[in-house]
Structures are given as C-alpha cells and as structure tokens.
Specification:
There is one protein chain. The chain has one domain: 60s Ribosomal Protein L30, Chain: A, CATH 3.30.1330.200. 20% of the residues lie in helices and 37% in strands. The protein contains two helices and nine strands, in the order βββββαβαβββ. A five-stranded mixed sheet has the order 2-5-4-6-7, covered by helices on one side. The protein has a four-stranded mixed sheet with strand order 1-3-8-9, with no helix packed on it. β6, α2 and β7 form a beta-alpha-beta unit. It is globular.
Length: 151
C-alpha cells in the first residue's frame, strides 16, 4: 500500500482508498484527519493555526463522505514552554475553534481529539489496511539556554 504524506499545509489533502495518509511534527500546529470507512477515502490537514476557511472545508468534505461511517481525529495544538503568552492564547483559541467546528459538522461519537501536553509534538496516521487513525507523541527537548545564546 502506498503512503501519502501531507506536503501542502493550510488545506485538506485527499488520499484514495489505496493510500495510507500521514502528517508529522505537530507541536502547536493542529492536524485533523477525516476517514470514510466505506469509500476508504481520507483527508488530512496540518495547520499552523486555525485557518479562516477550515469550517467551509470540513462542511464540503462532509458532503462527499458517508456521514455515519466517517471518523475524525484531531491532534497537536501543543503549548511550548518557550512560546509567548500571545502564542499560547492563539493555540488555545485554535483548539477551541477546531473542536467546535468538528462537533458541529460530524457525529460526536465518531470524533477523537488528543491535544499535546506541554513541550510535545505528535504525528497523525491513517492506516487504511487496519481501518484506523492514530497518533504518536514525542517530547520536545528544548535547549537549557535561551536561543539568543546560540548565535
């Protein structure tokens, strides 16, 4: 089975039923995977912060999937200990907006959301052979000295 890796951020990419689907490196970024178990089609987005057209995109995807057999998985949205308060607030607001948009569009019982903890990054996978979505988590190792000391 081929694997399609998300290479275009900010919008959903579609993978056909014969392609696994992956995206990597969500720290404060948020990934959303949508998987139609009937058709085998999947969609993934990897967005640095909430995109203005996100809600329109998921409503359009909803029109092209089998609603009762479509599963949604969101992860990422982590807070980094070196981020400013403003950046952390933007991440928290993005988490809230993504959750509300998914709950307004898809069946709540078919949605899983796993936000990263402090200083973690995650990767999102859609495995078509096993018909499941999952994520992995890695701790981010931060330098002990401020970045300014390295230049």
């Amino acid at each position: 089975m081929k694997t399609k890796v998300q290479d275009d951020y900010f919008s959903f990419q579609k993978a056909s039923s014969d392609e696994n689907h992956e995206t990597y490196g969500m720290g404060p970024c948020i990934a959303v995977g949508i998987y139609d178990k009937i058709s085998g089609d999947s969609y993934i987005t990897h967005m640095p912060l909430m995109q203005k057209d996100f809600e329109e995109e998921i409503k359009e995807i909803k029109e092209n999937v089998n609603y009762s057999k479509t599963f949604v998985y969101a992860c990422g949205g982590g807070l980094d200990s070196y981020n400013s308060e403003e950046a952390s607030s933007a991440t928290l607001e993005s988490r809230k907006t993504v959750k509300e948009a998914l709950y307004d569009t898809f069946k709540k019982e078919n949605i899983e959301i796993h936000w990263n903890k402090l200083d973690q990054q995650s990767n999102l996978f859609i495995d078509k052979k096993k018909k499941k979505m999952f994520h992995t988590i890695e701790d981010i190792v931060l330098p002990e000295a401020p970045l300014d000391d390295f230049y």
